[in-house]
Amino acid sequence: SCVGLRNLLQGLSFSFSVRYYAKHNHLYSKIKPKKCHILDCSASTCTHRTVPPGSILPWRFLSCKEGTKIPSKRKQNTSVITSELLYKNLLKSEQENWNDISAKYKAMTKRIKKNLEELHKYTFNSGSPRIRFGENVYFEENGCIFLSKADDVDEGNVDILFSTEDLGFSDAFIQRVRISPDERYMAISLKSENSEEATCVIMKLRPFPIMEKVIPNVFSFEWATNDVLYYTSQKNLKCQNVFMTTFTNQKHTKLVYTEKDARFFVDIYRTKDRRFLTINSNSKTTSEVWLVDCRHPFKLPALVQARTKGVIYHIEHRNDELYILTTYGEPAEYKLMKAPVASSGMENWQFVYALEEKTKLVDLEMFSNHCIMFLKKAGHLYLTVISFVSHSVQSIKLPTWACEFELESHPEHTTSTCYFQLASPVHPPKRFAYSFKENNLIEQAVQEVPIITNCHTTRLLAKSKDETLVPITVFHNMNSKELHRKPLLVHVYGAYGIDLNMNFKEEKLMLIEEGWILAYCHVRGGGELGLSWHKDGCQHNKLKGLHDLKACILLLHELGFSQPKYTALAAASAGGVLAGALCNTDPELIRAVVLQAPFVDVLNTMMKPHLPLTTEEQEEWGNPLADEECMKYIKSYCPYQNIKTQCYPSVFITAYENDQRIPLTGVLRYVQRLRKAALDHASRTSKKGNWIPNIILDIQANGSHCDSSWEDSLDE
């Protein structure tokens, strides 16, 4: 999370991983349900562009056959114009098709919208994250940032510090907030729905709030001192430059650091005790950290440890020692180590604590005398507290219903209490506190939501093709009878080492109320069981994720959770790879598929090195340009490449005109080929009861791959 090291743990480099997380995890801003992480979304928000990659460039998808002459410039222009015309006609045709189809669902749409709006009233403020500075509490609601005393925050005695609407940013939402150490300045990043670019607004808070500066194209930022801000810039879906800007009498901005390797993505983090800023340069498998001493912010950054292939590390600081969260050494899972600031090289790293096997480290927070780790093991959440005074380690199992947690911001590292929130897809966020002094966990009083409370959580293990046990989390209404007749919605992701998003969403709770079963398949390629779980499902292991998904669905049906004709599969972004592949290999297991901004043409994308993310994505999918075996392997599972004439489930796809990560052209091609295959199969077979699946594409003019407002999410 943005307050601990979760931003670095979730996506080591910022790229297609955002295909999932930024759209489906949850931002500080509660205007919309479920976007990135807590009070920023450092690793899970979207960014950057020079030419808008979201603009459709059909000529990217045209190529000359080997041996043919390259057309003249005049012919090329004609080809481009023809291609653009075909694209526009196809887009128009799909939009007309959508208008005809959606008209049939008006009554259902109206009912669902009313239900969701009602649920949103009760869940909107149930878990608004807060920044605590001594007696002051900062929090965000409805596009405004408020200040209150800690004792008055729930009484409504608040001052407004910032409003997106009043300051002319009505089409934007708040993404990340940073308060300067003396609380004189506040830096806020804002993002519009139709762009991946973020804008940083600096507010001077005293004697009254006033806008001091606006910086475009900013990704991450931190205060080094009361009036010195470091930030990273975004360009063409990459983040490789770090700048420093001052708010002293001598205002100036200068470039501090540049990353030259296209596989690496740079962001900034501030250690909990405010002693250092860390400039973190990460690829998918390797990292390097530079330190900025906040006592001397104008000095050049100092290198902690030169990048070593395959070694990931992140830095915290306490009492002149660096605490290093790293994959260095065996096994290649996260360990906590430490080293003196003055001699921080790898040869001086000393072991502190190692995670158990198949355990996922979700977040870490450092305090003056304690370190807290948030862990996932076998689907359950744990709080592990390491005491630097007594040298003891205590593990606390969190409530069984909890599937996600978010740390609240604790700017004071000397605090004696750690605040965080727990949630699940069907449980709105609840605030908890862990007291170091009392050594206990306390659930904070919250307004009870007058909605269903008899939702049952079940955790299963499915045996995959190679005997690996794959976790499944299942939710259903305890009052439901004859579960084999109930509709089942299966969720899958399985990429980038990122966990399947299990944050609260109103629509999931609504489905439970209406008798649905929800299942979350934690397949390989994701990160639910640690780094090895991801490694075992990427590159030449990607098919293992597909085998896992099939095994999960078969087990659910075998245990009486629904049946194929009542089963739907949902996936977003890179999750579209496994969902689309299952449609090709085992279409009889499911009746319907819902895909959101899906990545369905892996091969063509990875064969285009000029695309901004292709190089860094090779660590996830492989490099088909340099490795013929890799090309054959990707081709063996790529959804677009394996469409065939057979009976497919019905498919509903949502795509975005402004999506810079999944070009709309590729989605259109996939839909056209899928539709043709389904129709060809129907025309060739005359079996009784034969049906033609619906292949529906909803192209959203607003929104992008990463973010959309609550209103747009509701309409969608």
From TrEMBL:
It comes from the Eukaryota. Coiled coil: none annotated. GO terms for biological process: proteolysis. Keywords: Cytoplasm, Hydrolase, Protease, Serine protease. It is found in: Cytoplasm, Cytosol. Its main location: cytoplasm. Residues 504-680 form the Peptidase S9 prolyl oligopeptidase catalytic domain. This is Prolyl endopeptidase. It comes from Cochlearius cochlearius.
